[in-house]
Structure formats: C-alpha cells, structure tokens
Design brief:
It is a single chain. With 152 residues, this protein is of the alpha+beta class. Helices cover 19% and strands 41% of the residues. The chain has three helices and seven strands. Pfam families: NUDIX. Monomer. Its EC number is 3.6.1.-.
Length: 152
C-alpha cells in the first residue's frame, strides 16, 4: 500500500513555576490524559506563535517563550501517526480568568515532577515527561535556532 507520509508538526510549552509544571487535562480517544499545553502548527504560523496561541487557548495563560527545550520525533505505537514536536520553555505573564478553554480541555493544572511521574500512565505521550526531564536537566537552546520566513 502506497501512502504519502508526513509527520504532524506540533508545539508544546514547558512552563515551570515554583517547582510545578503547567499541564492540561484533556479528553482523548483513550480517556482523560495529561499533556503540556500543545497543539498543531497552523498554516502560515510560526512555531513560536503557535506555542503562544496553543497555551492561551488551552490554559488561559499568556506564554512568553524564551528558549527551545528540544525537538522530538514520536511515532505513535498504533503506527498511524508520527509527531514532530517543538517544545519551548518560558514563563507565563498573566492569566485570563474566565476565558473558555479549547473544546476537550477539562482543566489546566500545576503539577510537580513527582506528581507527574505518579500519573505517567495518563500522559498523552511519553514526550510529556521527556520534555520536563530535559527542562530539569537544563536543556535550553536559543530561540534564534528557529528561523521563520513568510511566504511573501
């Protein structure tokens, strides 16, 4: 069977505050799962802009990325999709309380790494903990590593 393969490009925000990380609890086909604020890159959008947008849509927090934590390639075990994730680290600068979150997002929650480990069976993917582990290991890459060119 011949098919046109391409990875699904996603972004994620790794945000630590007082030893806790901002996650979302979301509805998935596999049940309620935890993930970083994350989502798909939209046409014409820069990777940075996508991480800011997704964080606001999923958590009502304004994300200010200041580094690239890592780039991750993950083929789902079901074999139907491969994700190429760009994880950005940064901080939040305010919250829009009362903002309606994206469909499927149950809540935004701050968890310690230990609390995250305790619910690892409910992570959306192994990338959730890997991104936090990389952050805790000090992995920070300058944002100018990423270049965005408009089509114009």
């Amino acid at each position: 069977m011949q098919r046109n393969w391409k990875p699904n490009v996603t972004v994620a925000a790794v945000i630590e505050r007082d030893g806790r990380f901002l996650l979302v609890e979301e509805e998935t086909a596999e049940g309620l799962r935890f993930n970083q604020p994350a989502g798909h890159l939209e046409e014409g959008e820069s990777l940075l802009a996508a991480s800011v947008r997704e964080t606001l849509e999923e958590t009502a927090h304004h994300f200010m990325p200041d580094c690239l934590v890592g780039v991750y390639q993950w083929p789902r075990p079901q074999g139907d999709l491969t994700y190429l994730r760009f994880a950005f680290g940064g901080r939040v600068a305010g919250e829009e309380s009362g903002r309606t979150l994206d469909a499927g997002i149950v809540r935004a929650v701050w968890l310690t790494p230990e609390e995250m480990q305790a619910c690892a069976d409910r992570h959306r993917s192994p990338l959730v903990m890997q991104c936090v582990d990389d952050w805790l290991a000090g992995r920070r890459h300058a944002l100018d590593l990423i270049r965005h060119y408009d089509a114009a």
